[in-house]
């Protein structure tokens, strides 16, 4: 099971990113552990300068915008 973290303060873009990932995983029938990370210390620990950020299995894969469903499906396939 993939562990995916959405890194951000909870803004609209962060919420949308969370929903895009959840829906892409549902459509792909891939089980994920999806978590919203709003703790600034944890976000800074990942080296994120722009939110939303996304980390899969502890590795940052995206920053600074809402990823498209096809991008999310590529993360799920790895």
- Helical segment count: 3
CATH architecture: 3-Layer(aba) Sandwich
CATH class group: Alpha Beta
Mean pLDDT: 95
* Succession of helices and strands: EHEHEEH
Q: Spell out the CATH superfamily.
A: Glutaredoxin
Approximate shape: globular
Identify the quaternary structure here: single chain
Number of strands: 4
- Name the poorly predicted regions: none
Gyration radius, in Å: 11 Å
Specify the helix fraction band.
40-55%
For the biggest sheet, the summary is: 4 strands, mixed
Structural class: alpha+beta
Distance, first to last CA? 11 Å
Proportion of residues in extended strands = 25-35%
- Total domain units: 1
Largest sheet strand order: 2-1-3-4
CATH topology: Glutaredoxin
Textual characterization of the structure:
With 78 residues, the chain is α+β, with helices and mostly antiparallel strands. It has 3 helices and 4 strands, in the order βαβαββα. A hairpin with a 2-residue loop joins strand 3 and strand 4. It is globular and about 30 Å long. The protein starts with a strand and ends with a helix. The mean pLDDT is 95.
């Amino acid at each position: 099971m993939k562990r995916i973290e959405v890194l951000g303060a909870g803004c609209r873009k962060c919420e949308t990113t969370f929903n895009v990932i959840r829906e892409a995983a549902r459509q792909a029938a891939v089980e994920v552990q999806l978590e919203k990370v709003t703790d600034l210390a944890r976000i800074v620990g990942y080296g994120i300068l722009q939110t939303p950020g996304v980390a899969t299995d502890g590795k940052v894969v995206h920053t600074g915008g809402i990823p498209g469903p096809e991008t999310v499906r590529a993360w799920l396939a790895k």
